[in-house]
Amino acid sequence: MSADSNSNYQTLVKHFQSISHFEHLSALGDWDQATMMPNGGGEARGAAMAELAKHIHSLKTAPMLAGTIAQAQEQVLTAEQQANLREINYQFLQANAVPGDLVEAKTKAAYHCEQAWREQRKNNDWQGFKPNLEQLMDLVKEEAAIRAEILNVSPYDALLDKFEPGMTTASIDSIFTQVKSWLPELIQQVQHKQASEPKYTIPPASAESQALLGREVMQILGFDFNHGRLDISNHPFCGGVASDVRLTTRYDEADFTSGLMGIVHETGHAKYEQGLPIAWRGQPAGLARSMALHESQSLFCEMQVGRGSGFLKLIQPHLKGLLGCDLSHEKLNNIYTRVTPGHIRVDADEVTYPCHILLRFEAEKALVSGELAVADLPDFWSSQMQSLLGINTDGDYKNGCMQDIHWAVGELGYFPSYTLGAMYAAQFKQAMESQIGSVETLINNGRLGDVMHWLQTHVWSQGSLLEIDELMRQATGETLNPAHFKRHLENRYL
Amino acid sequence: MSADSNSNYQTLVKHFQSISHFEHLSALGDWDQATMMPNGGGEARGAAMAELAKHIHSLKTAPMLAGTIAQAQEQVLTAEQQANLREINYQFLQANAVPGDLVEAKTKAAYHCEQAWREQRKNNDWQGFKPNLEQLMDLVKEEAAIRAEILNVSPYDALLDKFEPGMTTASIDSIFTQVKSWLPELIQQVQHKQASEPKYTIPPASAESQALLGREVMQILGFDFNHGRLDISNHPFCGGVASDVRLTTRYDEADFTSGLMGIVHETGHAKYEQGLPIAWRGQPAGLARSMALHESQSLFCEMQVGRGSGFLKLIQPHLKGLLGCDLSHEKLNNIYTRVTPGHIRVDADEVTYPCHILLRFEAEKALVSGELAVADLPDFWSSQMQSLLGINTDGDYKNGCMQDIHWAVGELGYFPSYTLGAMYAAQFKQAMESQIGSVETLINNGRLGDVMHWLQTHVWSQGSLLEIDELMRQATGETLNPAHFKRHLENRYL
């Protein structure tokens, strides 16, 4: 390897650009599988996706990388190039931790499990789902054990690290223990306060009109339809690539409010993706910072903006025009801030939501450590739901441990990101308001764009150029501080 | 390379299985780009598809292949394995003919050209399209020249060979010269005969109701919706993979007849794909035999079955139910067998259709040889349309040389397959009828399934296990004989 002083770094840039092209195809395959693909296409797709995953893995573990990275680290690079090199190295280490055969086996098992889950969930078929999940969980544990040994952390920490670089079980335990100390009482206080409030009837709305409304609301939030789409899937998600972001949702014709806020949530993810630094497209430094930060953007959209009265006032005429919905923005605000313990995480209100995460965090830790067998998951679920939210889920698997896609595709370690994201979102709002004024006032004055611009400047355009603690310090003056989340809930709900 | 006697062949099988997985992703990328992708996603998609094309090319030209194929040819193999090895070798030779950089450059240029063409075609923007086509045509000519030298044939022959293994310009010239000797007179005779027939008004129909009708008609033809979909694109096509066939069409709300027959046509392609031998999925022997044979199946569906009175009688109640269309099957038959020279190939009737191909065949030969410059294409087009069909296309590029997607994606050498396909279709019908009786009678007796079963047995299930001449001999008792096509037109139209 001779050549000019910049050659090692440039070799890495080219190599990771190439990887990003295959990841583009992987994102497309995932999106299509969830939105468009007929069931009969699943087997061949699963095989193709497994082959692709193996290929991407082989590119990320190419023998030349270790040496090239080491030599690039000796080069004179700009601060941004150094950040990109740090992220390249992180991806290399993550990929190198797991053998290609295991990647392929897990991809195949995940496709098989998720394909079957789609029907099994509808049919409340735990007995059908269980063996698939058991098989997949064995592979997840194998992966966790291998990663743990290499990173010298616990197996569950090794999974967390895939989504939240540097985050540990101990940190989350500490944060979540605090939450447990005040949240149950807060839920009771809010429920008591809301008990006397009137309940409004939600008018029915066809899926077609909800989809039209969804697109108008996305436009209000500044979603760029030249670089993305909205479709339907079993489980709402934001996929695709930064230049072509694919949102999905699902519509309940008896209650449009859930699908609508689902779209607002996913649009928050999409805005992050569409706002990532264009100069770094295709490079690791150009990717979103972490999953919790991704969730912070969707939750900022959904919770900080979407459930506020300013935004609801803004979209109310669209609800009237497209759905014929006569509810005033005050009534909408009441509906969207009503706290009611329920079965479904994605339908949960802002206050009870963390309980769904506390449960899953405990379950995942125990599943990965082996303390909890897959067969015992429904009982564990029911007892936790009982103690956290007073809900019995015995026998109701579809609204219990089969409700989420995450485990059906073998993604453990992701769930904590949701509540960490809610905390980051509250912290961003506090910082934003201290800098540019109240979000509600801005929206009421037709300046939702200023809110988005702040996020664009401080979060989206940063990609992964900064590590998360530094990003938070530059944006908000401090690292993650869960107190903002508690204060936000108290301000809004008490 | 030691190991058991079967190892070289098995190595090839595994290698081509892997290639088929990447081709699955390529088919998905193409379909999505034509049906779902927003314009702004084009650049990144183009780069990803070019990377993928390059990777597939590198797999098909892997250094180990030459030796492994040579050694496998010495092995004791079944007749079917030998056929697969022959097709593996054909793919290897085809891929090896062209350098990877050229494949990548052409893929990129084709994506760029086709993306822009979508809008340019709508706007009749020849000046915008011309430089893109010129750039792409240079790459096509470069490819043709390289292939020609290696295969020791003319450049255009080298392109034909990609779609019709073994077919030559000389053979097609000879067949098309015959067609030219009788077709113009036949068109005049038919027009004279039809001049006194009444013309029926086609009722308007919404795109939504046409899509519902299309799905019902596909079901009647036995399309398996567990292994495929119907969507909308600028240019109708049949894509995807055998286990997940993706049809597209476009709807004209003022005239549903064109979109409907377009769906019938593409369903013919789809039936071929869905009927390919399952035991050979993912192997070259399991692919469709040639593009002309593919077109023979779509044209069998559209022309031999679709425009016959038995089929129209079968679907008439669906037209009434979904579109409120009161036209009797006799009137539909009249509409679907009306001969009217027109601008658009895909809307052409069965009799004038070959003229559209004769024109394109002459244009392609001249473009590839350099006798015709891209800049002169519109004039060439207009003069040929004038002499073949009496139509002036001066200044009407969107309905002239910009109407098809083929050149916009750099696919030259494909067009002759349409008319060769019509000839194969007529020959299949003649053979089928001599074996199981009249297609019209079968359909009238509710036995459309028997017609499909014959095709399944003699064509679809054969994949590429036989070479085309042998397939035709086994199915029809002779190799391609254009006389059947002439007889079919005379029987139906005179």
From TrEMBL, chains A, B:
Belongs to the peptidase M32 family. CDD domains: M32_Taq. This is Metal-dependent carboxypeptidase. Pfam families: Peptidase_M32. It is an enzyme of class 3 (hydrolase). It comes from Shewanella sairae. One of its GO terms (molecular function) is carboxypeptidase activity. Its EC number is 3.4.17.19. It comes from the Bacteria. Transmembrane segments: none annotated.
